[in-house]
Description:
Layout: E1 21-29, H1 32-42, E2 45-49, E3 52-56, E4 63-69, E5 74-82, H2 87-96, E6 113-116, E7 122-127, E8 164-172, H3 175-186, E9 189-194, E10 198-202, E11 207-208, E12 212-216, E13 221-228, H4 232-244, E14 250-255, E15 262-267, E16 273-278, E17 282-283, E18 292-293, H5 296-299
Parallel strand pairs: 1-4, 5-7, 8-12, 9-18, 13-16
Antiparallel strand pairs: 1-5, 2-3, 3-4, 6-7, 8-13, 9-10, 10-12, 11-17, 14-15, 15-16
Bound molecules: fe (ii) ion.
Residues 167, 169, 213, 224, 226, 275, 277 line the site of fe (ii) ion (FE2).
Amino acid sequence: MTQIGGFIEATRRPGVLGVHSLDHFSMTVPDLDKAKTFYESFGLEVRPEGRGLALHTHGHPHRWGLLSEGPRKKLHYLSFGAFEDDLPRFRDHLNACNVERLPPPPGFESNGLWFRNYDGVPIEIRVAEKSSPNAKSVFTTTSVGPAQRGAISRSAAPFTRPRRLAHVLLYTTDVTRAIEYYTKVLGLRLSDSSEGNVAFMHGVHGSDHHMLALGRSSAPGLHHCSWDVGSVQDVGLGAMQMANKGFVDGWGTGRHVLGSNYFHYVRDPWGSYAEYSADIDYIPSNADWEAADHPGEDSFYLWGPTPPPDFVRNYEAEA
Ligand SMILES: [Fe+2]
């Protein structure tokens, strides 16, 4: 489970420099009211912060996302969390990698180190509590015995509330270069990839199979943010609660091969997605995961409906 209130100690691989978490993502959207409706319907807690909105999960202290208003939906920056004693090491490491440091974006306070990746996307490494999970997240499945009802009435269906941000998938102009970059600069490790089209990276201090996923495009962008829930039932009920609010487009329900998670993607008002995800593979800090490259048709999804034709269309590249 995610570390809450110090009950679960953050896992750490000794002697290795690497970010421990995807701390939060930031994007601009053309209509904050629409965004609030979308993410509240999705089951998040949306709070005003500055002139924008902060995305929280109910009952969890961490802020997972920041939305600000802009002329169009656009990935703004990614922030990664690091252990406090690693920050000076990252400072030296960035210098050794000839990474040019930047001031924080205007209006964003930060204790972190800022720079741009090869696609021009601002990246921050900040001191933060480890918000990536320290063990495999709890996943439940229930079955009743004979002479008992297994399902509840529809009117009694609970509202799905994700527990935490799981990962984001960024569009990138070069997946191979992205793997090299995030390995070298941030200390992420490759989990799996597919034919130069997609790659999944985990944190060395213990994280899900991917805290960062990368997909090939002509320009950078945010394809989806993914949120962890505790069961296939939660995934399905989440999809239903979104459909009941009018957010019927998306892809799912299904199961991925790479990462193994059950998924349902709901299309947001700007052509990107929010994903309900359950039972994703976990890579502990003391495990050496063997990365592999997989044929696309054999690894995109194990089962589920055919994805919509524009599922991997980068609308940020066309704006
Ligand atoms: Fe995902």
